[in-house]
Design brief:
Layout: H1 35-53, H2 60-67, H3 71-74, H4 76-99, H5 101-118, H6 125-139, H7 143-153, H8 156-188, H9 190-211, H10 225-236, H11 239-267, H12 275-280, H13 285-293, H14 295-321, H15 327-355, H16 360-424
Helix pairs in contact: 1-5, 1-8, 1-9, 4-5, 4-6, 4-16, 5-6, 5-7, 5-9, 7-8, 7-16, 8-9, 8-13, 8-15, 11-15, 11-16, 13-15, 14-15, 14-16
Amino acid sequence: MPASTGASTTVGAESAVPAVVPAVETRMTPGGPGYRRMSLALFLAGVATFALLYSTQALLPLVSDDLGVAAGDASWTVAAATGGLAVFVLPMSALSERYGRRTVMTASLAVAVTVGLLVPFAPSLPALVALRAVQGAALAGLPASATAYLAEEVTPKALVTAIGLFVAGNSVGGMSGRVITGWVAQEWGWRAAVGTIGVVAVACAVAFRLLLPAPRHFTPGSLRPRVLAGTVRDHLANPLLRRLYAIGALFMTVFGGVYTVIGYRLAQAPFGLPQGIVGSIFLVYLVGTVSASTAGRLVGRLGRRGALYLAGGTTAAGLLLSLAPSLPLVLLGLVLITAGFFAGHAVASSAVGRTAEHGRAQASALYQSAYYIGSSVGSTVGATAFHSGGWAGTVGVGLLAVLGVVTITVFGSLAARTRRRPAAA
């Protein structure tokens, strides 16, 4: 049979060179398959996380009155949850490396919402604090796993925007949780309010599981303690990651202190606002939704360090404005604090995902641990400072934290400039 009749036969010297097939990008991009479902799923997960984590924050004056405890003692219902998350986020991230991001996030939300339905029945402050600590520990599986999921499943150019949307979900959860609890508590008490948040979180958790696309780029890792310890050691040895962890903790120190204490301040003279109005003050979280979701464009224009300078300056300006004995100026101050915080958090957390070359879940977990340690410190120290020095004491704590952010960022700029000089030479 002539050779020319074979369909698979090639002719000519060029046939010896295999064709180069361009690699097909299978990670998600804005407008691409699965991106909207993924964004909505993680947005709802962020809503549930912050709504549950801070469900008692706007209710602290009512908790104090009902259980007969001081502001500093009541603040432990917030600090216990964030502290539990900070302690367990690293072990939960290790589980996500082994069993998958989606699996761990689903289990975390399931346990957290179950505990959320039990919180309203806590008979005493110690029982309430214990339940909140368990709830925080359960939620620990979500933040680091979500960031790692995005780093693996979304293209690098879209990563800051995708994480910004997740952080925006955090802001909506924090806002809606506080607004809902404020008005429900005014009519039926704080227990009914946190129970309502538990029901809302159940709906978010179910929708999250139904919407989130299955991971396509996850590779199971090892659960061996030696491997985990080595990964953590590598991340902590990275100067840039250490700076990002510190920046996240300091930003959250400001935010945790301000929003733990603001309810007490607005309920007292010269404002004397009712609980429902105090809860509605948290509508300013919508500003955080916008600033977090636009963090990618901010980094594109100013660079990472420029964006952090702007976020820190905005936060400091808000703290100073909030000292005024005028409700409109206090509200404007809260707007600036919220915008600066969420922008800084989105920039720092996305930089962690891009900086880590391996063990992204552990890198993100260390950031989340530092972040929520900052929240616990901010809520307890801010409440203590308020008790001893009034609102000015809480603002002083926040300004010191912002100064720390700016100092670390300046140090990072100098270190980068020093590294560039030998390369240029």
